[in-house]
Fold these 3 entries.
Entry 1:
Amino acid sequence: MIKSPPQKYNPKQVEEKILKFWAGNEIFKKSIDQRKGCTPYVFLEGPPTANGLPHPGHILTRVMKDLVLRYQTMNGYYILRKAGWDTHGLPVEIEVEKKLGLEDKQAVENFGIKKFNEECKKCVFQYENAWVEMTKRIAFWIDMDNPYITLTNDYIESVWWSLKQAWDKKLLYKGHKVVPYCPRCGTALSAHEISQGYKNVEEPSIFIKFKLKKEDAYFLAWTTTPWTLISNVALAVHPDETYVKIRYNNQILIFAEQRTATILKGQEYELLDGFSGKELEGIEYEPLFDYAKPDKKAWYVVLADFITMDDGTGIVHIAPAFGEDDYNVGKKYDLPVVQLVNPDGTFPDEVKEWKGKFVKDADPSIIEHLQKRGLVEGVHEYKHDYPFCWRCDSPLLYYAMESWFIAMKQVQESLVKNNNQINWYPEHLQQGRFGDFIREVKDWALSRKRYWGTPLPIWTCTDNKCKYEICIGSIKELRELSEKLPEDFELHKPFVDELKIKCPKCKSPMKREEEVIDCWYDSGSAFFAQWHYPFDNKEKFKENFPVDFITEALDQTRGWFYSLLAISTFLFDKYPYKNVLTLGLILDKDGQKMSKSKRNYVDPDIILNKEGADALRWYLVSASAPWMSKRFYEQAVKETLGKFILTFWNSYNFFTTYASLDKFDPKKDIVPYEKRNSLDKWVLSRFNKTIFEVNSFFKKFEIHKAAREIEDFIIEDFSNWYLRRSRKRLWIEEKTSDKLAGYSTMYDVFLGLSKLLAPFIPFITEDIYLNLRTNEMPESVHLCNYIQADDKKINHHLEEGMEKIRALVEAGRALRSKIGIKVRYPLGNAIIVCDKKIEDSIKDLLDLLNEEINVKEITFERDTSKFITKSIKPNYSTLGKRLKEKSKAVVGKIEQMDMKKVYEELIKNKKIVVNIDSEKINLTKVDFEIIETEKEHIARTETEHAILLIDTTITSELKTEGFAREIVRRIQSMRKELDLDVEDRIATQIKVDVDKRAALQDWNDYIKTETRSKDISFTEKPLGKLVKKWKIDELEAEIGISK
RNA sequence: GGGCCAGUAGCUUAGCUUGGUUGGAGCACCCGGCUGAUAACCGGGAGGUCGAGAGUUCGAAUCUCUCCUGGCCCA
């Protein structure tokens, strides 16, 4: 039996009740199990990085994942929903360092790597709990009991296997490369890591002079990083640019001709000579410092193409250890790599002047030193973007480091080919941002000189003659090569470093490369490593590769989306996912990025407790296209709750209140579709159209459009029109078949909506479904099949008719408002003037118009002639223009004529002939203005398809009926004031003027029914629980009611 | 510095693919009405240089270019 729920909707209460219901009945598990054997739809969970508490952005991703998966599950797909946790990496280490107060790598090592990694592991699981709670609360159904976790031996073993594949394909190599390096964290950063930390900073830049060896002249160079001057080994010029030698301020300087204007800013100088960059090649100069003792020839001019004339002097100082371009030039000229900086970013002992000082901090002092020696030509503050460590905020240094790489450039063509097989949403990312990235792909700097991560499984023989290198791809191999592998072990530092491995070639001990790997590689391996492939689950992997669907936020484009494709490409030469939905970022109320430092961060828990998960979910999916950024603030969710969720709930509440009162039984009382009225059929047509639209929008991931389609249907069509117009049907006390038809329709729509909306707002839909379901139906809405549109119920003719009726209602109400007769007072007749086609499309729906504009009768006419007088008057301005001085006479003639006859003649003959002094003048339509006048008591308005006329005559009967409605309205508001239940009956006493009393007698029954009064008595002194005096226009009334 | 995405009423947004009546809603605001109809509903009003400028066209929110602002990505 349908029950009437509480009047007021309490999101938290309902949602917690539903959470219990799901848990108690294992609904999530059943939703998967019942699809066993069905076509799989493979989803891969992008593992959250467990480096902090979840924020609104994470909620969006999880809501969107859940929405799509619920939708597909209901559509009959079998979806495994394995959760995953990304557990390694620098973020975790930073968190632990903070907690333990460890300031740098040395402190970590003093603390002990074993203990440190244990702390990291604990830290990860501490955050996991917060994530699990949030995930459950927003109803993201994912199997968190059997997640893949990147720190497990199984997972690491799979990752090792994949690295061995790369090794065997000669894609894994050790290189020297200039990489952005964080001196504090003591590690190189990957491209996607640096990108997160660019800041616009102002730094000193200096013009610095290098004295030529064989001449009393100087090369003028420019740099923003004075500390690299210590390691300078060359100067570079562009081979094709022109350089000049000038005398300025009693010294001779050499630099690019193009830069003279900027550098000298109009000051006087003498041009001595000019040459191309090529001619300068090989010229030697004196080093600025003597700290470096290079083993190769250094300090001369080299040529390089990368030099621009945009800033500086056209002469660039080269320190191969500290710049990618510098390094490449250095390789070409076989320059020495002078690296006078310690790994922690301080100067070594050789640099006596600044030893132990952090290089960036030494800049001012270096400048001062050079100034004293007269080698600085100018110092300027220079604004530019400089990379900072995304975690610890230290300025990064470019640093030539030994590092392991995956040679992605070698598989670049495959990357492009595989990317072209993927469906990107939105599409522009495929060839745009992502396409650009892989077309210019760089080798993947894989290794990290850190502690908490997947160890790089490469061992090198310690014998200097042998130096054999191996890559271990499984635990089995490890066991075979190591002296003694205990039963219980963890594939982490420091355990793997302490293993005694013997060189397969010379039997000398081997030593592991100390690094761990980039944690992006961990998560990018998820598509096979989650199955412990290839050691286990070979079949399962096959079934689940490539995956059908992944979705993450935009910032993952070059993160996880890339690492998956990269690894899948070199392992299997195949795309790892078929569809990728990229989500927009979550911004604050003012469109700013959410960040902890700005404190513009919204705590999702507050919203979950106040507005609830459904309102939150609905806001996130309906606000804008999935890939557009969204502003997130409580007020927005609050409005969603009020506008949508509560409208939905209150309509439902309205239906159940009456349905339970009448004991409506969906098993027995359902009226067949054919026997329902036009309004019922109309709303079912609209509903099925909505279902159709939702499904087609879903296919394109235009989820916001699907959501808005439903919202429009519920608010406009269903609540504001269908239910409003159905109210009267339910108010009748007998169980009429029309009333049952109404209940049946509402039942169909609510049951249908609970399914249609289940993937979007899983709580409220479940609550509604559980109340409406019969025993034969599945025990949860989430175990139902998704609702499909019934084409047979879509009736375009009816929908068009309703549109016209609603337009007439709108116009009619505006008209009544204009003529100032309250809608409460009925009027006699309304006339619709339209053609036969329009009449046919609306005649079945006329009752709705009758009630809405409150008229007794509506009739159709083909033209307005009965109600409107058409007449004409001369158009003085056109006549005057055309006839000049004759016009006066013509006008005089016309004014004597009967205008009605003139009009008729004009319509008939299209012209009128006027005789002026024997001259015949032809007058046509343009010479007249047509005037339309409504006849007395007729008000007129029009819509696109029809003209609506209302007879405004108020007879005394009509006046009395209006008065009766006034009385009813007063009694109803008194009932409300007494907080009576809908079914409560009352006794009513009324005092009105004697003559009104007589007239009202005729409306006795009407008032009784409308107000559920047992009886009505007219007295001089009304009594009751509530007695009120009313002034109705000019009349006074006193009413008393009691239960 | 380069690339991509976006900019429409105080706020949230539709329309842009494929140029064509007067740029459509919702929230908030003002006036009126209606109500056993809800955090309502109905009618009316006010509120828009469609980010700016130029171009193409008979006609531009829509197409093209330049610029500005914001976001993201890259350097």
Entry 2:
Amino acid sequence: MVFQKRSDYGSCGYPIPVMPQVPKSARGKRSVRKKVEESQMCAFDLLAAVAGDLLLEKENFSILNNATETPCPASPKHTVKVESNMDKPVKPEPYDQGSCNKSAFVSEVLVQRPVSCQIKGQSNSPKATISEHASISMKNDGFSKDGFSKRSVDDGNNRDLRSSPGLVPWKCSSGKNFTGSAESSEAHKICTLEDPMELDVKPPLFVSSDSSVEAPLYSNRIACAVSSPKSRNAVVDRDDDENLFRCTHPSMMTYRASRLQRVGNRRIRKLLASRHWKAALTTSKAGELGNNDAESKLVRKMCYTRQRVQRSSFKRRKVFGGCSIPASKGVSSKEGIFSLGKGAFKTEVSDSCTTPRGANGQLSSRIGQKALCESGDFHVKFSIKSFKVPELLIEIPETATVGSLKRTVMETVTAFLEGGLHVGVLLQGKKVRDDNKTLLQAGISHGDKIDNLGFTLEPNLRQAPETLTGPEHPHLLLPCDTVEPQPLSRIPAITAPTSVSRPSAVEPILTSLGPESDHDSVHSPTSESVQDNPTATNSRALVPVPDMDVKALAVVPLCKSKRSELVQRRIRRPFTVSEVEALVQAVEKLGTGRWRDVKIRAFDHAKHRTYVDLKDKWKTLVHTAKISPHQRRGEPVPQELLDRVLSAHAYWSQQQAKLQMKTSPAEARLLL
DNA sequence: TTTAGGG
DNA sequence: CCCTAAA
């Protein structure tokens, strides 16, 4: 299995090649997207730990002993279970196809990290290695339990972890919007600021909660909590499937990625479009071919998934009692060293990371406030319920069986994970790039914007796992990461993906095939009959691609958009000549202004073409027809078609004018 | 939901 | 393609 980055797509999912010149309108958006994307290129030792769990199954990984150790090229196989996470059936939205959930999820991960731990970086000191203080709990394990020597793993039950003694609540307020709830007041009390400027936090990390675009990583409930100061400390957990937190102890919080994050904010979604990866799969076995017509119909062509920026948002959670505020161990914010008490470590705040930002006095003060905390043992607790696996492209013969498809998906995901990926941290939708910052500095504290903390699994832009041991890809690394390998790069590369999924490997990595067309085989019984197979449920979402020419299936988790959550821009699918032909023909017949009819008439089977798309295409066609050939881009449209476009456009425009003249002569005359 | 247009 | 005001 080979992964290759799609060269025909930009990092945001927009095709670059055929359209060197991005439409003006798109440019702006792209820039924004890029902005977001770029900001996501970060590594985070904490997250590395998380990812480590995702990747490690049995290897003994000794990062602790050698933080800069290069990844071991040879490693055992991994089996990652791909499973549908859909708790509820979601009706595929044509228009939204590919818009969301095109990623798989993995099971919940709980991570605890001293607030002062450093975000891994170039100048990272061994003290801040992944393993040191990250307590990780894979709720639905199957992963390595001993990947990190010091890591405490509580597999199967994150509650234990939450209440484990080593986890010290962090009590400290942050944010200017902090309002005086009892808890917050108390938090203020225990905070003192010695040197606010010592802690530097990039402005973006503190964008207003109101900025939906910039802070896409929170769900509705979180947004509510943030926007409503009073509810800040209230019980806001409304998790559908779990009732883990009921208490609102401010000292410790758990963030949990919802498995079923609904992606609703298209604006955000479009910002988060990400790279595309292709997994050429040629693993179909002979015996699996041509067995079932239905299957072959089902497995039309290729499964195409985009690697997407993880859109998981983390629900703010509260932890029950049991999380008492520990006795102060003494914290010296001045020195940038926090004594975190038992099991904690000290991390120096390097000077380079503490550049005062005059323009952000506000921010500084916020952080400063946190820095004031005199009591040590502050931990930020994360509960990562699921991770989304970046989008993948899967190619499989249509004669392959569903079973082989499942395996293929499995292998793809597995290979992807094995191929090396790293975790990104997003706060308020902004990537936390500085790995050297402490959580505190980055604004990841228990009290503030952490509500909008997000994690992403990002593939290393390596073509093959072998490259794991090689130098990091510059563009994937932060400036400060160029020296030290990505946290996850230490994870041994697996070159031989398992061919059989193991149900217990890992819970929910949801990878489903998105609605790309309306083929009736979407809900093939076949897929339902294999419920025991985690990947089986995915098949429900599997749908063949329209005959037209689409050759890929989107592998997407099915989740409907939900406001305030991350959304994904649809993949761009340039119209082919045949499609244009069909469009022109339909418009000639029906005229403009009846796009729904046009859609039904000529693109009824192409789910990914909405009437809006057709309308847009016509618009561009008309424009294309008017400009000189050399100005045109993309797949050249036969002049003959363009001529028809112009004539049809002229004709129907005229008709429309006439119609208007009839219906409202007066107005029409006024216009003339 | 569709249209129509600007982005 | 996205976003939306209008219808």
Entry 3:
Amino acid sequence: MPSNAEPAPVSAKPPVTLREVAAAAGVSVATASKALNGQGRMTVETRERIRETARRLGFRPNSLAQSLLRKRSFTVGLLTNDTYGRFSLPLMAGVSDALVDKGVSVFLCNVEDDQRLGQLHVEAMLDKRVDGIIATGKRIDRHLPVDLSNLRIPVVYAFTQPDPGAVGLVSDDAGGARLAVEHFLRLGRRRIAHVSGPASFAVVHARAKAWRDVLKENGLAVSEPLLGAWSEGWGHEAVEKLFGKAGRDGWPDAVFCGNDQIARGVIDALRERGIRVPDDVGVIGFDNWEIVAEATRPPLTSVDMNLSTLGREAGLALLSLVDGQPAAPGIRKLPCRLVVRQSCGGPPE
Amino acid sequence: MPSNAEPAPVSAKPPVTLREVAAAAGVSVATASKALNGQGRMTVETRERIRETARRLGFRPNSLAQSLLRKRSFTVGLLTNDTYGRFSLPLMAGVSDALVDKGVSVFLCNVEDDQRLGQLHVEAMLDKRVDGIIATGKRIDRHLPVDLSNLRIPVVYAFTQPDPGAVGLVSDDAGGARLAVEHFLRLGRRRIAHVSGPASFAVVHARAKAWRDVLKENGLAVSEPLLGAWSEGWGHEAVEKLFGKAGRDGWPDAVFCGNDQIARGVIDALRERGIRVPDDVGVIGFDNWEIVAEATRPPLTSVDMNLSTLGREAGLALLSLVDGQPAAPGIRKLPCRLVVRQSCGGPPE
DNA sequence: CGGCCCTGAGAAAACCTTTTCCCAACCCGC
DNA sequence: GCGGGTTGGGAAAAGGTTTTCTCAGGGCCG
């Protein structure tokens, strides 16, 4: 039973093709193509007439057809296994932002830690003829569960362990740690403890080494870092270890934490003990996870890894690789940035 | 000066085409295509020979060419303006997971709140002939800064305000609030306060209304909800308002919070006042942001909006729209789920 | 006035796959 | 032996664009 007052379908008419534009302008498709791309030779009038016709008809070239011919799809794949963490999102946004302006779109590929899923996504990308792939992870020292080593298209690794000989971008963790410790030193702090995550993370060692190096360079006593978990709970425990012993003289006057959650735990635990932050002890975190850093009391000074810049750089690096520019393989470290809030206080008077 | 010991290029050889497979198998491309797709008629031997040849050569059909012909690209666009929040990530992962198995890839489009960026991305999607678009936001009651209303391809809205007449999926905030309040009631709590976010958010009212409704249905006294910000700080303030007045008798024995950060603030503030959670007061949050919910002391019972399920459903809904199945327009609400931890205690003895 | 070059534009191939139509050969029954 | 049906497989068009080649006409120089 046909309905007689059906609303117009949402507009099923197919997109305008170049052929239609050419017909409407009274030229051949070849000429139309050249007119729109600024190629070939023709009178200014012809070119303008075609352009105007295309505009009037709302012509937009079919990317699929273009890609098929040019062997460039203006598309890249973004692999990640960090779908619940907070690292990948700014990174992905950075990639996307860097590329959208160049007309390149990004396929989101969530591979978790699942080999099958990784395989599936990589094959889908290859079939769709992406121009390149960016691999991203939640850990700088771990591989994604996929083999990207013989892919015939360029690959850039961002915030994850690259294949040997590939180009990788990571944050400069040691530099970030330096930033923090040197900030403490500038403020006159001298007994700077370090509380960080599990020893199984490479960044833990990189940051700890930088912390120790800066202390040594400044002729200060060096102790062992306290390694535990990436959690608030561990921050509490660490405070117990550091400030549990009697004798205020042995207490640190600054704590550099491996991430913001630990720092949060440290600050809370210090307050519960009646130790003032920043007056008695300064605290610096890592990651600059704003929602945590701004909720601590006082707000937390923290090292920002500039992940969206990292993503942006990764996108641009991939693009130049796609354009055939050879890139120096190896790992490029991007600087961190210290975001100063109120957990370190000012210089001593 | 040509180098004489150059390492072999990473393998610049182009992918195997169907034509090559056909030639290798000694048949025409038509036959090869039919053999691989299970179409047409030919002897079992021919079919197997072609398949074997394709396998041996590592043939993979060019999606671009297929898409061009079939007028289906097996790609969809995912628009979001929540690149730093925690809502979009599980949602995006859900979409991606639901689609990858169907061979559909997802374009990530970060539009922030930028009209230009939105326009850019939508045009790129259209040019790339996506089969459909999923629009996602960080707020259920706000539009994305793009017009998706006359697009000739299907659009599904997930966790954002849909256009009238479009299909939208959101979480059932009222249902979620019910879950929380009824849980309190089952545990014997009777004086249940509600602390939530800014009145400018629609969800604040939806949840508050459900809270009030459940109380009324159970013949309990109803007060005004405390509306403020989505922050820990507001949780602290709210505790001051609720528990500042003398007279322990007037105090609530449960607080239902509009999100986990508020709940965190509430729990911390209660502890600072020496009020025990859950013994004296039960607390429930919203969002089930694990990293927060598990860090509160005690760990926080919270309402989970099942965002990855929401994403999955959005993906499937879009797919069936793309397949031409008409979908009932309007907003579909997906149930929430209460994740019980330790901030509510057991039933009273 | 003839040859040459330049200009403006079109025809056709190419990209890779799918699908429709077609054809030759073979088998069967009469 | 011949018409009709079936079987196995190929030719060609289609999808939308880009690019190379070709070509006709006109202007210029000698």
